[in-house]
Amino acid sequence: MGKVTLRNLAAHKIRLVLTAVAVILGVAFVAGTLIFTDSMNKQFDDLFSRVGKNIAVDVRAKKVVGGDDGQSAQPVPASVLKALRGVDGVKDPQGNVNGYAAVVGRDGKIVGAGGQGPPQIGSNWNTDGSFDLKAGRAPRGPGEVIIDAGTAKKGRFSVGDTVGVVSSGAPQRMRIVGLIDTGNLMGASVTAFDTPTAQRLMLKPGYFSDIEMGSTGPSETQLRDRVAKVLPNGVEAVTGTKMRDENKSDVAQIMGFFRTFLLVFALISIFVGAFIIFNTFSMLVAQRTRELALLRAIGAARPQVTRAVIGEAVAVGFVGSTLGLAAGAGLAALLQAQMGDAGSGGLTFTATPVIWSYVVGIVVTVVSAYFPARRAAKVPPVAAMRDDVALPQRTLRIRVALGSLLTLAGAGLIAAGLAGNGGNPAVPVGAGAFAVFIGVAMLAPVISVPVVKVLGWPFARLMGAPGRLARQNALRNPRRTAATAAALMIGLALITTVNVLGATMRASVDEQVNSQFGADYLVQATGGDITADAAQRLKTVPGVESVSPTYEGTAKIAGQRGTYMSGDVAVIAKAARLKLVSGGTSIGADGLMVNESTAKDKGWHVGSTVPALFPDGRTEQLRVAGIFAKSDLIGSRIVAQQVYLRHTVRPSMDAVLVNAVKADAPTRKAIESALHAYPNLKVADQSSLKKDARKQVDGFVTFLSILLAMSVIIAAVGVVNTLALSVIERTREIGLLRAIGISRRQLRRMIRVESIVIAVFGAVLGMGIGVAFGAALQNALKSQGLSVLAVPYGTLGVYLVVAAVIGVLAALWPAWRAGRMDVLKAISTD
C-alpha cells in the first residue's frame, strides 16, 4: 500500500500540486507572521540590551494616578540629584531629560516620519553608554545639537551645518556638532542637547524626567533601598532590572497584540485553505472510486485504503509546509520592508515558525482529507465491476439541521460578545463567526440551487447551449459547488465586514463633526507642544475673533483613572455644541462637568463633591457644576482650567480653538501663514477634520483588506482546483459533447460560465454575511460613536465584478485543457 500511495502521488501530479498551493499560501502566512514577530522581538531585545545597560537604580516620580506617561507624570527636581551624590554606593548619577524634538529639513518640513510613525526623541546628552558619538563632539551650549546619523542622512546634513530644531515653540537655529550612532532604533530619530538647553526646551529648568545611576559595589536592591531613604515625597527608586523589564513589557504587549492580529489573518487563510483541501480530496476520492474498489477486491482492508489516502495527505502537507515556510520568509521580509527604518534589522529564524509551519500544514491537510478517506474505505469491492460506480451521498437533511443550528448558535455568540457582558469579547465573537461560517457552508448546497438558477438564467438565455450546460453543471453537484463557493464566501464576507465598518466609521465621523464641532478652526500639534507665543500669534491674525487654548490631563476622579479636558469651559461648550442637561458652564476655580451617563452611573448631580487625585500626588475636592449630553469629541469630563494649572509643572496645550469673523479661504490662509514658523502645528476646519478622519479609516480598511486578500487568493485557487478536477472527471462527457458537434470555443465558454456562476454565488453569499456582520458591529458599537450605519454599495458592486473576473481567470487553464482534449481518447476514457 505504501508503493501504491507513492505511485498515486506520481500519477496525479497536477491534482496534488493544486492542493499543495492552498497549503503553501496558508502556511506562508503563519510562518511569515511568526518570523516577522520573532525578528522584531530580537531587534527590541538588542535595543534594550544597550539602552540603560549600566543603570543600577533609576529615580522617577511615583505613578500616583497609575499608568502615567511622560506627559502626565511629574518631573523630578534637580535638588534630588545633589542628594544622591552623597549616598554611599552611588556611581555617576545623571539626570535625564526626555521629550519631543525634531529637525526641520531644508524644505521647512520635519525630517523623518511624524504623526503615527516612529517617534522624534529629544533628550539631554549623557555619557551612560546607550549611544556612541559617530562623529564630532558633545553639545556645550544653547546653540549646539547632535542628531542621529539616520536623520542626518535623510536631511542631507553633516557636522558643522546649521539646522532648525523644533521642540517647544518656533524652530531654533542650532549648529550640528556631532552625529549619534543609534544602531537600529526602530526608525526613531534622536536629537540631543546639553542639559540646560534640554530642560528649557522639553521640560522646565531645574527638573529632570528621571535620574539614573550605577553602583560602586552594592547590589541593585541594596542601592535602591539606600537611595530611597534620601528621596522626597512623590519620588521613588526602582532597580535597573525592573526599569528595563517594564520597558520590555510595554513593547512585548504591543508586539503580542500585533502578532495575535496577524495570526488571526493567518488562521483565516488556513480556514479557507481547509475548504479547498477538503473539496479537492473529496473529488480525488470520487474520481478514483473504481481504482479504490479494485484495491478492496484484491485484498486491501478498509484501514489500508484509509491510510493510503491519509498518506497522500501527509505527503502533500509536508511538501506544502516546506514551500510555505520558504514563502513565509519572503512575506516576513516584505512586512519588514513596509516598516521602513523600523524594520531594518534583518530576519531572525528560530525553531518556532518551522515547527508550527509543519504542524499547521500537515494537520490541516490530514484533517481535511480524513472524511474523504473514510468514505474511500467504504467502497465495496463489487463496485470495481461497474462502469457507473459513484460514492453514495448522504441526505442533505442532516446538513440543513446542523447548519441551521450552528448558524443560530454562532449568531448568538456574536451577539453575546458584542454586548460586552464581561470577559474578552474577541473569544465569543471569533467563535461565533467560525460557527456562522461553518453553518452557512453546510447550508450552502441547499441555498445554491435557487441562487445558481437565478445567476445562471441570463447566461442560459443569452448563450444558448453552452450557457444552459454551464448552469446544469453548477447545479448537478450542489455539494461541490457549495464547497468551492464557501472558500470565496469566507474571504469576501470578512472583506465586506471591514468595508461596511469603514463606511460606517466615515459616516459616523462626518455626522459627529457636523453636529458636535462648532469652532471655525482647530489648531493641533503633530508632535511637541502648542506654546503661548503660537497662541498669541493667532490672536493677531486679521479676521480672528477669539483664540482659546484647551488642555488634556490625567487624574483619578472618584477612584477611576481617566483623561479630562480643560480650558475656557464656556468656549469649549460652544465649540463642541454641548447640550446641557443641568447646571451651567460657569464652573469657577474648582468645578467639574461630566456627561449624563457618568453622572447617572456615579449618582452625581449638580452640587455633588467629587475627590480627584492628580499626578503630583495631591487630592482636591471638585464640585459638579454641570452635566451635559453625550459628546464623542469632548469625552466624559471637563475640569476647570485653574485646577489643571495647579497640578501641572509644565502646562501643555492640547489644541487651540479659533473662531473667525468669517470662516473663509483667505482667513484660513492667514492663520496658516501666521503659524508658518511652527512646522509641528496643523490647522483644520470641519472639512479637513473629516478628510483626515477618512484618510485614517481608509488606511485601516486598505490594510485589513490587503491581509484578507490572501484568503481570496486561496479561494481563487480553489475555483481553479474544482474546475480542473471537474474537467478531468468529465473527460468522457466532454468527448461526447465534442463528438455531437459542440465546438472548442463553445466548450471553453461553458467552463468559463460555470466558473463565473460559482464565483458570483460565493461572492453574493459572502457579501450578504458581511453586511449582516457589519450591521451587528455598528449596532453593538453605537455607544462608542458608530452612530450611522453605512453600506458601501459601490464597493460591493466592484467586489461582485471582481468575483466574476476571478471566475474568468480561474477557468482559463481548465477551459484551455478541455479544448485541447482528443475526442476519441476522451470518449474511450473509463
TrEMBL record:
Residues 17-201, 481-661 form the MacB-like periplasmic core domain. The keyword Cell division does not apply. Residues 264-381, 706-822 form the ABC3 transporter permease C-terminal domain. It is a multi-pass membrane protein. The keyword Nucleus does not apply. Belongs to the ABC-4 integral membrane protein family. This is ABC transporter permease. It comes from Actinomadura violacea.
